[in-house]
Each structure stands twice: as structure tokens, then as C-alpha cells.
Queue: 2 jobs
Job 1
Amino acid sequence: MSGQLLVFQVLNGIGIGMIYFLLSVGLTMIFGLMRFVNFAHGALYLVAAYAAYVVSQLTGTMLWALIAGPLVAAALAVVAERLLLRHTYAMPHEAQILITFAVALIVQESVILIFDPLAKNVPVPAFLSGIVFIGPFVYPAYRLAVVAVAAAVALLLWLVLERTRFGAILRAGSESSEMVSLLGIDVHRVFLAAFALGGALAGLAGALAAPLRGVEPFMGLEALGIAFVVVVVGGIGSFSGALLGGLLIGVVQSVMSSLWPEGARLMIYGAMALVLLTRPAGLMGRA
Amino acid sequence: MSAFREGGRFPDWSSAGVAVALLTLPFVLPTVTLASELVVFAIAALSCAFLLGMVGLLSFGQGLFFGIGAYVAGILLEQHHWATLPAVLLAAVAACLTAGLLGLLAVRQRGVYFVMLTLAFAQMGYFAMLALKQHTGGENGITGVPRAPLLSGLGPLAGPEAVYGLLAVVAFLAFLLVQRISASPFGSVLRSIRENEGRAEALGYDVRAYKVAAFALAGLVAGLAGAMHTIFLGFVPPNVIELEMSERLIIMSIIGGAGAPAAAFLGAGFYVLMADWLSTLWPRWLMLIGFMLAGIVLLMRDGLWGGAAALSRRLRMGRQTRG
Amino acid sequence: MMRRRTLFAAGAGLLAAPSLVRAQGAALPVAGVYSLSGTFANVGDLLNKGTQWAFEHYGSAAGQRINYTLLDDQGDPGRAVRRVQEAMGQGVKHIVGCTLSSIALPVAKEVHARGGVYIHMAGADEATGSECNRSSFRWPGASYTAINATARPFIQRNPNAKRWYTITGQYVFGDSLLTNLKAVLQEAGQQHLGNSYHSLSEREYSGYITAAIAAQPDVLAICNFGNQTLDVLRQAVSFGMKRNVKIVVPWSTGLDQFQAWGPDICEGVYFGVNYWHGVEAPGNSVLQQVVRAKTNAPTNYLQACGWAVAQMLVEGVNKAGNSEVPAVIRGLEGLAYEGPTGTETIRAADHQVLKDYYLMLGKARSAMRDPADFAEVVAATKAFQPPEQTGCRMS
């Protein structure tokens, strides 16, 4: 593989990685703050992608889905939390895993029920359907736009976490939720807000991914798998970990597709296992 | 009643109940093949329930060991013409060894990290199966696995009834094994680890070694189930090692309740029958399973078995107070 | 065969599949094996409809009314085999359909072991190759056909496109497409620059596409199936590969995939399909009429496939004059009939249907005469491996 190709594979990997970051940052936040694994995270991504499909059918473009997708996903997250998850906080962690797993199953079957199981097409917005030249290589304009949006969201999120009161509570809560409640803050409302925010971010990832990947009922499963790997590698509860983990997994996937394409998937899950074994807090997480 | 959680006597009335159930199943159900499928998954769900109920380990990887058992048995029977019992034995041992090795790695973590490790292993197993498509048949699976004699020299397994007989015997032995362990000192140590790992450690038990042993044992049972699955079907479909299989086993053990070995049998039975029956009514029957799972987690922590136990307790108490 | 006595004999009917009428001379029970749930539910539903409508249309075969029942296997080969076992135990001997090769192959063995006849649409070469048997028949052409009916005419039309790059699914079917393609390329003196494998559940192809672009090929061949084909082509086009590379998709299901891609992606791309609704043929007209009456839309490959296997069974029974399995099998072997792609012949040596496989070229949006006119047929070839080379030992 030539040096030029390698450089471009890395750049391409960064592009993929930004999408993975958006997908995973919500999961890591929820994990860090509420200490449970949200198996329904893929379902949030899924409903937003279908929202993007509906939006593009109704209005001819998926641009409004950038708002509709996160809203729908956040709404689903809130409903799931109020109806089901709320009751499981006192239970051992298996209960939350299983409940969110059940939610994922229900959402998936509902989507098949409402739409049909065939893959649906969501066209790229017309003004982004071209390509951009980066040296001797080409890159789709839409993917570049996605990277830009992800970067903007990353910045915004960082500002929220570092500069706002809500962000401070979130960060404190992921260190110690008891301390936060001792300070007189209703921890459960913080949970709900964090869950909605995490859902909205997954929804944004879903809406953005719809023109790239097509929309079909089982896309949530793949997204969940990737999100798990990124969160584990990057570090549970760490925003910068989600960014670093996402970029790392994206680059590994892209470079592997030239070096050892058959093994790309195997390597990604192997990397997850390796991190879990050697440094379970992940690259940026606190032990 | 909650044999995993509280220990129990071995054997107890549930052993008799399971024996009776295994004997009558092919007559109660419309076909022997449905009964066979139920029994295979009962064994597999047992491995899940054992880990969860006794040691408190939620494993999303039991499908991996089920699949290893299925593929090893399939390869030995179809490509190397082994007899049935030796093939089953080697398949179960292969699954057990793999579980032991992976267990050595997996038990270094706890709680959610353990769950995610088993998930990662399950995914890796699936991609490894695809990579080894020379031996595993890739996405087509292995077809034409013959019904070999139990031991070389004997006649072949004569038809579905004989297969069911073999399955029932193996299921009962697996059940007794798990029940025996549950009632043994080894079992009590596992239980103490589930309740308070730190205390168990402080009492001087090598917690990790016990967990690895439990994991290997669960792998053995799952591998046994996988081998039985291959013999029952006569082929190895690729979905035996997919993540969906691990998820299915967990659903079965949760529905039944991870409280007792018999609960796993109940959960598997319920799921298999529901899947068979509901799917003819509504293709989206998985949604109902999802609701059921959520309902059980929220309302009936010990699953159907626990629900039945609570009901019988209440009836008994009612009779006592009225007495 | 005696019905098993059960405790809940009456209730057993509820637990088993919908009632299967025994063939008593009045009706011929036929079972279809399709997935209505699970990952391939999309495919299964349409296949089933095609079969159902065909049996409705024909109504009867050799004087017996056809009684069709669906066996939903939920995408699980184990369940498929069990359902088939149950059905055959209740007297059904005529089985059609499959959603996946991993279901068709074991079902074929089961039907053969129990003396039935099975007509299916699996894509795996083994179905009429190393796994062939006297009870099973297969309608669509598999990887040898797909490649030879696509690559050869393409090379003839594009003599200057000599450098090929392939993106291949790393599984049995993808590999067989690749192997066949490499053989054709070698024979035609073309250059195979390189190949990128990807795994079965891959969604992200940008890395493979980048490698393909870097190799600077004249042609990109996409060797996989299903949703993966959808994703690879969509992403390849988004990377602007159409500017200076010709893209060939040897294995496509045609209309439903064209609709998923849209005309802008399809334009200028070469597709290989087993069926196209725009082809003039008497069998196709019959099929289209029925489907249009039901859906007010043109027929897609899945509906056509479901129809074709049903039609084959009816033709076989009619030829035999009765529904006895050995007679039906003999009737099917060598039978020529008017199918969805024109005159189709069932080869006796391996039970493969010899039929046209089409090479199509995607049209510009402005050139589409109606919303389904995505591509035009530029070649129709019957390309099948000689039976001695398929590895089929008919038992």
C-alpha cells in the first residue's frame, strides 16, 4: 500500500470516526452518568434514520431530519426512561441491560410493522451530492459536511460540558451521583435530561447516516456494536474518550480495509476485548 | 424453590418433575421434533441460567459455546465419520476448554465490563466462523450430517424417536449435574460470590478460579446443547453462532427465571412453544417477546418459575391461615 | 402414514401450522418455505406472494386443486427443516421456495430423504452442484451464470476496458462470483488489478472504495448480494467512481434494488439480473397481468421467482398427468415451458433451469419512459456450466 493511499485511508478513517463519535458520545455519557449500558442506543439511531426517510419523502430533502431525527430519538428516550427504565435504577445492572434490550427489540419490530422490511433510500441533499478533491483523491461532499457537523456538535457539546451549570452537574454526576444529590439537585431529573441528550445525539448520528448507509430495520444492531466498541476503547463516561475512540476505530477500520480487509471486523471486536482486559477504563476513562 | 439462589437438596421433587416432563413431552406436543427442539434449547438455556442465577454473571456469549459445540459435532460427524457419543463428548469438551480459556480472560472484569467482554467474544466467534469457511461452510452452514451410531459397531440412531430419547437422557443428565453442583459446597461458594464477592475473597476463596470453573462448566453445558442441536437437525446452520443465538438463550433464561435449573427448562419450553405458535398468528411476534421480557424484568424478577413459586407459596399460606 | 396420537389431538391443530389437507384426490397440498420474520423478512414476504398468486392463478394441476400453505421459518434453517418435517409427516410431498441458501440446502436434503419434490430459488452453486439430488430443482442461474452472462457481453461492448478491480463479499457466494470472474477475465485477456474482501455484515465501504480508486481500474465489479450490494454501489457512486470507471454488478435483484438506489445512481451502471419485467415473453405477460392486478405495479424479481417455482411445479404435475412424486420428477426433467424469462428448460443432469440471464445498462433519468424503466436489457444469455463440471452426482 503506497504512502499516499495510507494517508488517504487515515483521512477517510477520520471521516468515519467522526460519525462514530456522534454515535457513541451519547452512549458514553449515559454509561458514565447512570452506570448502565443502554442496549436501546441502536434503536434511537434507527428511529432517527427512519424519521429522515419520512422527512425526505415528505419534503424532498432530508435536511429537516437534522432536527426531526434528534427530536424523535430524544422523545423515544424520554418515553422509555419514564415508563420502564425509571423502575430499574435500584435493580442490579442486568435488569437495565435486559430492559433496554427489550426496548430495542420492540422498536425494531415496530419499525418493520409501520414500514416494511425492505431497505429504503434517503437521497443526499442535492447541493451536497458532488465530490471534493483532496490532492489526488476524491471525497464525497456529503461526508465532508457530516464531518463538519460532527465537529461543530463536538465543540458545542464540549462547551456545554465545560462552561454550563448543566454540564458541570453532568460531569459531577458521572464521578459521584450521591454527591450531586447531596448538593440538593434532583439526580433523577439530571438522568432524564442526560438520557434525552444522549438519545438526541444518537438520533443526529442516525439522521446523518441515513443517506450514507440506506435505512433498514437492522441498522441499529450494527450501530450498537460499533458504539460499544468505541465507548469501551475510548473510556466509559469520557467525552474526549468518545472522540478519540471513534477516530481510532474509524482509522483502524479504514486502514485495515487495505491491509487485511477480511479481518477488519474481527480486529475491531478484538480491540474491544483487548482494552477490556488490559485497561477497562479505556484510553481516557478514569478507573 | 429458588435452587440456584438458596441451594437446594439433590435430588428434589423438581428432578422428578423434569424427568416426568421429559418422558411425556413427545406425547403432549404435536410432534416429536418440536419436543426435541424444546429439549435442546432447555439444555442451552440451562447454561445461561446457571451463570446468572448462581454466580450472578450475565453472559452474552453462551451462543458462542453453543455454536462451537454444534460445529465441532457437525465436522466430526460429517467430515470424519465419528460415532455419535464420541463426537458429542469432544464437542462439549471443545466448548468447555474454549470457555475456560475465555473465562480466564473474562472474569478479570466484573459487572457491565464482563457482559461487554462476552459480547465481544461472541462477535469474534461469528467472524471467525465466517473466516474458517473451508471447514464451517460459511454462510451456507454444514449440511448432510449423518445419524451415526451411538458407538461404533452399534446400529445407527433409528429415527426421530431415538434421537429424542438421546436428547432427553442428555438433558436429564445435564439437569442433574447442574442441580448437584447447586446443592454442593462448590455451589455454595459460587452463591456467596454472587452475593458478596469481597466477602468471599476475604474468606479465602480464590474467587477468580471459581468463576472460571463456573464459566467452563456453563460452556460445557452449552456445547453439549449445541452438539445435540446438530444431531437433532442433521445439519449446522450458521445462526448457531450468531449473536442472535446468545440473545435468544438469555431471553429464555430470563423468561423462565434464573432462580433454579428447572426454571431454565420452563423458559426454554415457553419460548420455543410461543415462537412456534405465535409466529403462525403474527410475523411480528418478537415484539410480544420484547414486551414479555420487559414485563418480567420489572414485575416478575424470578421469571415464570419464580411467579409459579410465589403463587404456590401464597396458596399454601392461605391454606395454613385458614386451617 | 398414521397420524401420531396425542393427548391434545384437537388442540394439536392449533399448535401446528395451519391445517394441511391430506391429498385425497380432491386437493394437492403444497407447502412454501419462506421467512416472514427475521433478517430476511423483506425477501420472504414478496417471494411468498409470488408463489401464492401463481397457485391462485393456475388453480389446479392434473385435475387436482392446489391447496397452498406457507411454512414460516423465521429466517432460521432449523425451524425450516422442522416445519418441512412436520408437513411431510402430514402427507405433503410437494414443497417450494426458500429465502436463503442456508435454508434451501438442508431442506433439499430433508425432502429428498422423505421422498418429496422440492423446487427452490437458492443462489448457492452447490444446490445444483455438489449438493444436488433427484428431488430438488432450482430456478435462477447461480454465480457461473451471473458472471458469464454479464462479464462476457460487457467485455464485447467495452473492448477498451481492460483493467478490473473487484470488491467481494468474503463468504462462499461472493468467493464463487470472484472465482468465476477471474476465470472469465483470464480467458478474455483482461487484467485483474486487485480485490478487496469485506465481511458479511459490513456497512462501511469507503476504505475499500478508496483502495479501488487508487488502483485506477477501468472497471469495478461488485461481487456480493443483498443489502451489501446496495451499500457498495451507493457509496462507490458517492465517491465519484462513475466519472472514469465502469461499474458492473453481476448479481442484482433488479427492480427493487433500482428503486432503492434511484435513477441517478443506476445511470451508466451495468447490472446482471435473473429477471426483468420489461422483457417480452408470453410467460412474462401472464405473470405481469396477475401482479399488476394485485399491486398496480410492475413485477420485481422476488415476485417473479416465487411465481416461477410454483409454475414449475404445476408444469411438472401437468406433464406427469398425476401428482405422484417420481412421475413429477420425471416430468420435470427435460421439460421446456414458457416461464417469466421466455422458454425455459429444466436440465435433467443437474435439475438446473436453463434460462436467460440479462445484462442491463442503467438509463438516465430523462430517458426513463415510466417510473420503473430504470435500465435497458443489452444482452440475454443462457450461460450454464456443463453438468460434468458442476460437481453434481445425481443420486
Job 2
Amino acid sequence: MASYVLGEFQEEAALCAAARRLRELGFAGLDAHSPVPIHGVDEALGLKRSPVPLIGLVGMLLGGGGAYLMQWWMNAVDYSINVGGRPPQSAPAFIPVTFESAVLVASVFIVGGLFALAGFPRLHHPVFEVEAFRTACVDGFWLSAEVEAPRAEAAAEEMRRLGARNVSRVDGEEA
Amino acid sequence: MAETATQVERLDPLEPIPVLAGRPGDRELNDQLFLPVWQQTRRGWLALFAITSSLAGLLVLAVSYTVATGIGVWGNNIPVGWAFDIINFVWWIGIGHAGTLISAILLLFQQRWRTSINRFAEAMTLFAVMQALIFPALHTGRPWFDFWLFPYPSTLGLWPNFKSPLMWDVFAVNTYFLVSLMFWYVGLLPDLAALRDTSKKRAARIAYGIFALGWRGSARHWRHYRIAYLLLAGISTPLVLSVHSVVSFDFAVSLLPGWHTTIFPPYFVAGAIFSGFAMVLTLVIPARKVFGFEGVITAKHLENMAKVMLATGLMVSYGYALEHFNAWYSGDHFESFLFFHTRQAGPYAPVYWLMIFCNVLVPQIFWWKKARQSIWTLWIASILVNVGMWTERFVIIVISLHRDFLPSSWAMYYPTLVDWSIYVGTLGMFGTLFLLFLRFVPSVSASEVKELRRELDHEAHARAAH
């Protein structure tokens, strides 16, 4: 049974320092919550680079390539239309739709990738159990640790020592 | 009114105008920017909403009448086969472009003044594109068959003709709408979560909670979010340029004098941004006053928008000049007749001169700093530019069509009551959506202003250290 330990810090730097400290102590399921992206928190939490750009690139290639092939197959192969004597497979005329489709599919992949990686939509999460956590998107800087129940007290203790306020513990149902 | 706007920045004339007045704290910013959402519905809002939603009702009536009867109820007929429908389509799409320019291109150029107006401008884009889409959808004549525009395997055994600019338009405009919608919504997520967390009522908490999708400011989300947002900005940039280029191909690819010009794509894009910035000013000036956002949307923002309008206005003027030059230089009789006779002295000459006044002369006032900093001048000029850009599309479309190659086929175009109703109706629908947006969504991005404040703090520190 996993528990969540939450603590609120006054400012970004303290949160980063606390994240680093808890990670050194071997707590793995750490996360920071803040109203704005924090400089340096990725390093503190040991997060890797986001794969979203790659996902977007795949979308762009699929969208653009797919749209070109679609136009070629529809207008040159399956139902060849002679328009003003231009060749059935007329690359310049196919560029706008190819480009627009590349942009559209890339965007869908980027947004879809973001949602999938972030696990959206997920309307409930154990951290929302803590009423004080409602500052996390407004002006609070929170550290959360997903820990095994026996270690929860140790994590809470450490957060308090590092200057956290509102240290709370949520004993998970499913987590 | 002009005084209040200049008060903020005239404290010390040697100090540059700030992009953010003071250094409000995070909580303070939320309180200030979310106030229009949390406070009681105001009487003024209700009055405006009553007007705009009645006009939107008119739109519903006029559209229903058109669909039930057929587009013969419109004034356009051969030779003027395109008229209000396409004028309004191009006008609305153009207005949308400033939103994408502000949110995407200025983000990539790290223009700080974009931060407080981007949400506003993106909403404008979305709502403008929605209005634009109504027109070609109806103009097909049988809108219940509009799905034929999309390539799907049908029992008819036919495919769309992808060598037609009208097909390109379908893809460009739909892509534009969908990408703008995603960009806007992704940008909204942190603020929706903040709304959920500052709500006092359970219903609001649940409603905003659903739209926030479970955003909890997690660092694990932010790292995907930031790059996703930046990438969306990156691909919106060529997108916005392509959309109006494609719209201009609808004209430029044909042979009609007044349409058949290579200057069209850049000239259309410049015109779109010109009219879009005008619309942002028209909307933002009253809104910042009503909501007391003068500290976030400062005179700096207004002045910068005026400068963009001046620049794009000059590009549009250059487009006009080059069109006329090409007509003369081509030596083509029909081209010269259109550009040097029909436009200036034909039956629609007043529209042409109104266009020249609004689009060429009016923006010149922004060479003067005084004009750029005077609220009333800005607001009136922005409305004139909106009018001017509408007349430009009228000039391009109707004037070119009503005098084509054969004098025997010349004819006048007069909009009917239904034409006017649909146009005014879209203004009402746009206003309605915009008022709903102002009421239920924070119109200035709180999370981005918080970031901006940190950047400014950081810079002030660095400067103090030197």
C-alpha cells in the first residue's frame, strides 16, 4: 500500500533542494507541484528529456507523407482526373494539402502525446485529498513523495526538517 | 479615459513603459486576473450579452431561411458569384490571424509583451474562424452535403480534386481551426486547474476540475507541457502564413483581372495580421478598462500593437501599389481597365476610396507617439482599419467580378437583407462567444504572467548585481 507524503515550501529554491535531498535518501516516487515551471527541478528530480518532440516528428512525417500518398492515389491512380492538362500526379498542386496535413497530424500527436505521457484526463489523484494542496496551482510549491506506508513517517519527518509547511500524509487506496 | 492609460507610464518620462506594472505576487495575480470569473455577473455584461445573443439569434434565423429556401435569397448571381459569403469568410479568417501571430510567432521571438494578451487573441482567433467557416459551408448551396468536401470512400466512387485551391482551403482552414483550438486549450490547462483550486463553490470546482483534466502543476507534466506548447507555437507559425496564402490562392490561381497576381499571398497575410491586430485593439481596449487590467495590459502593449498595425498597414499599401504597377506593366487592356478605371471611377468607387482612406491613410497616424498612446485614437483607428479591411475584400471580390472581360455580362451586385443579417449575425455570434469567454475563462493567462514576473525579477537582480 503506497502512501503520499506532501509538503509545501516557501519558494522554488527550497523545493529543489528538498527534492534533491529526498532523492539522495532513496525516495523514488518524488514529484514537485508548482504554479509555474521551476528552473532546475528536472535535474533535482532526475527527470529525463521529454519525448514529445519525437512524437511530434513522427506525426508530422505520417501526416505529410500520408496526405501526399492519399492525393496521389486518389487523383492519379484510383480516379485519374485531367485538370487543365496538368499531369495526374502534380506535385506542386499537392503541396498545400500535404503541408496542412503534416501540421494537423503533428499537432494531434503532440497534444495526444502530452495527454498520454501525463495520464490525462485523470480527474482524481491522491494528492487532491489534501485541502491545503489547493495552493499548488496558485502560489504554493509542493513536494510529493509516493512511498511505502512504513517509510511515510520518515519522509514526512525529513520534509519538516527541510522547512516544509502543511506536511500531510495520504494513505493510498489504490494509488 | 486617455489619462488613466497614460498615468501608469508617465510617472517618469525617461523610464521605459513596463510590460507589467509593479510586481504582484502569485496569489495577488490570481485574485486580480480571476476576478471577472468569480465576481457576480455584471449588469453591463448582461446588457451586452443581450444585444449580441439577439444578433446571434438573427444569424440562426437567417441561416435557417437560407438553408430552407436556397442561396438564391442572397444577392450574388452571375457574374458576381462570390460576394458577401466570401468577403466575410476572408475577413473573419484574417481577423483570426493576429491571434496566432501573437501567441505563436511572438512567443518564438520571445516578445514579452505578448504574455498578457495572447489568451485574449487566441480566443479571438477561435471565435473568428468559427464565423468564417459558416460562410463557405453555406455557399456550397447544399450544406447537408458538405461532407463531400472530405476525402472519404463513398459509394459515388469519386474523390475530391486536390488540384483545386478550394480543396486546399478546406484543409487549410480546418487545420487552422483545430490547431488553434488545441493550442488554446493546452495553454489554458494550468489556469483551469487554478480556477478549480480557487473556486468557492462545489459546482464550479467540479466543472473546472473536469476541464483541467487533473492538472496538478506536476514537474513531470510541466516538462512535457513546456516543450509541447513551444512545438505547437513552432508549427503554428508556418501554419498561419500558409492559411492566408491558401485563401489568396482561391483568387490568384484564377485568370480574372484583380485576382490574378503573384503578390496575393504575402499581401493577404499582411492584410490579415493588420486587421487582426485592429480587432485585438478594438476588443482589448474596453475589456482592460472594464476589468481593471491596466497593470497587466499596459500602454506598452497598446503601443506595440499600434506599431505592428503601422508596419502591416505599410505592407498592405505596398501590395496595393504593386497591384496597380503590375496592371500597368503587364500592358493588358483588361487589367488596366480594372485598376485605373473601374476601381476609382466605377459604380463601387466610394468603397474603393473608403478602403484607401482606412487602410492607407489611417494607420499613418501611428508614426506619432502621441497617437499610439492615446486610447481613443487607437480605438477609433482600430475600428476604421476593420472597416477598411472589409472594404478591401469587397473591392477585390465584387469590383473584380462585376466588370469582367465581356461588357455584355457586366452586372451590379446588391446585398440582400439576408446577406446583411448573416453578416451582422456573425458579429453577434462572435460577440456572444467572446463575452462567454470573458465571463468563464481568465482572459489573461495567470500562469504565464507569473512566469513573466519571475523573468523580470531575475533580470532586475542581474542588473542590480552589475
